[in-house]
Amino acid sequence: MTENSGPHGGHDHSHNDFQPDIKEPTENWEFLEIALRELLVDKGVLSAREIQDEIEAWEKKSPEKGAEIVAKAWVDEEFKVRLLEDANQTIREFGIEVEVLKMVALENTPELHHVVVCTLCSCYPRPILGVPPLWYKSKQYRSRVIREPRAVLQEFGTKLSDDTEIRVVDSTADCRYLVIPTRPVGTEKMTETELAKLITRDSMIGTAQARDPIGKRS
Ligand code: FE
After folding, report:
1. pTM of this prediction?
2. 5 in catalytic set
3. What distance in Å separates the CA atoms of residue 154 and residue 186, rounded to the nearest whole number?
4. Domain 62-205, CATH 3.40.50.300 — does that match?
5. What are 181-207's pLDDT values in tens digits?
């Protein structure tokens, strides 16, 4: 790629704002994606704008939705039971439609800790958690968390008691998991909105615990 091609072409490069070029496609699936996308646009099935709008809409989805759901499960036992029994139906109350995907909620407790992975590729509950973090898609994480989950969790700074059983669950094209992290102690008086702030993306994947409330943090 020459300096003036690409997304930053034409603007002043004299002030050292180096940005890496967007990688040229090399993989088969990348060529297939480009071919399919160009055909859809050529045939007038979709416009380039519509495709871009859809990408942007997905990029805007964030783990906040998941945190809202988990916070409600923490404060409302009846809701939690329903969420564990039929996540698809329950998250619909939050305006989330996952269509053909089967959503499964899993509750972490001091005795049993769930961690989510997709060993095959990068299946992830995007409607609830947004775009997955890069490490989730890495070969390292996908292969290692299955074999040595306790060691991988420690690298995330998550130290579990030796008595806690760790269960790694493998996502698939049609089944996605949402982890309900253990509610931290000392949060009994907090409101749902305050609680939601303790629920991080990683705690809903299971590589972390929910945050401790301020004041309790070391
Ligand atoms: Fe996958």
Report:
1. 0.80
2. no
3. 24
4. no
5. 999 999 999 999 999 999 999 999 999
